[in-house]
Amino acid sequence: MGWPAVDYEQHPWHGDVDRATSRRSQLRSRGPYTAAVPPNIADLTPEIPAALAVEAADTQAALTAFDARVGDIPAPLAAILLRTESASSSEIERLTAGAKAIAQAELGRKAGPNAELIVANVRAMQSALDLADDLTVDTIVAMQDALLRRHHPDLVGLRTEQVWVGGGLSNTPHTAEFVPPHHDRVPALMDDVMTFARRTDLLVLPHLAIAHAQFETIHPFADGNGRTGRALVQAMLRHHRVTRSVTVPVSAGLLTRTGDYFDALTAYRRGDIAPIVEQFIAATWRSIDNADRLVTGLLQLRMEWETRVDARRGSSARRLLDVLASQPVLDVPRAAELLGVSYTSAAAAIATLEQAEVVSPLSGANRNRAWQASEVVNLLDAFAARARRRL
């Protein structure tokens, strides 16, 4: 389709040979290694076959329609969909946690390292949306900073050393599956891809698919490339006004067929852009269907709660029902903060919902107790199960 393939160049290797490996592996790890040299793409225009262009346009229209439909619903669905996108993007990197654990981590409670990393990815996704009007290298670094600042602040920023993908436990790039460009090339390549991302003359789905593939090929960071690269997708959707209100969990669609997704990235590096465009189109349709089912389930649950709760309209208990959809694990201080009421009023609201069997207490001392809306947790876990990787 007329897209330039990645070139390659050799660099000297000064790292130590792993003495714990076989003699053959040690010999393979000596001497220069080969690193990618991605093309500059800022001024290139992809040639998209007519049939694929029609599919991309239809998908873009479906994204905008979903965003408008869900954005008009008076419920905190944007926060829910942001979390589901973040969790799915993290699971592509094999970071998994249940909805309950993620909600506990958001509350600042111990929930395991994966849940904490997923919550960090929520911050990165939110940063992507907040910075969408200004797609620059600095904003991409800000997204990665939101992802890593708590657990790996030393890895924030464009990398200053060679990295590689795959290769097992080897401590050299010689046996890696893919060796991204030498770090000296990264700043210029990042300027180039972000210039490409800001263009306004391209069909959006192919545009963001190619920008994402180029970003992953550059691999600009020492850590967080996949999650930040998928945050870039959300930023581009918002930047180009395809979405305005909610985060459509495209990563949930990619997660279902991760093998195809990674194969498409490899094909992109050979100069074939069709597979990655096709993957994003298919992933978007899957994500819209899955998210629609989640939203429908949450709205039905909200109406059912209304019949259970004996409290006046506008009361703290009624208002807390809306909060629970996006924060299904709560303690009294957080409820008071979110509702803007006193500790006593928040405790009374939770007691009302507990009596109506909307929430149930988690184990723990009374003074530090939390409550969960199990039905919301179940809906979120069902969403994750539908999206879970097949390959």
Spans where pLDDT lies below 50 across 5 or more residues: none
CATH topology of the largest domain: Fic-like fold
The secondary structure category is mainly alpha
The largest sheet, given as strand count, sense and whether it forms a barrel, is: 3 strands, antiparallel
Please work out how many helical segments DSSP would assign: 16
The fraction of residues assigned to DSSP E strands is under 5%
Strand order of the largest sheet: 3-5-4
CATH class of the largest domain: Mainly Alpha
Instruction: Please report the total strand number as a whole number.
Output: 5
The sequence of SSEs as H and E is: EHEHHHHHHHHHHHHEHHEEH
CATH architecture of the largest domain: Orthogonal Bundle
Shape estimate: globular
Overall pLDDT confidence:
89
Radius of gyration: 23 Å
State the end-to-end CA separation.
Answer: 27 Å
CATH superfamily of the largest domain, please? Fido-like domain
In percent, how helical is the residue content? 55-70%
The total domain count is: 2
Pfam families: Fic
Protein name: Filamentation induced by cAMP protein fic
Domain Fido: 135-283
Binding site for ATP: 223-230
Descriptive notes:
The protein is mainly alpha-helical. It contains 16 helices and 5 strands. It folds into 2 domains: 49-286, Fido-like domain (Fic-like fold), CATH 1.10.3290.10; 293-383, Orthogonal Bundle (Arc Repressor Mutant, subunit A), CATH 1.10.10.10. A 3-stranded antiparallel β-sheet has the order 3-5-4. Helix 3 packs across helix 5 and helix 12 (274-308) packs antiparallel against helix 16 (374-387). It is globular and about 70 Å long. The mean pLDDT is 89. A hairpin with an 8-residue loop joins strand 4 (360-361) and strand 5 (370-372).
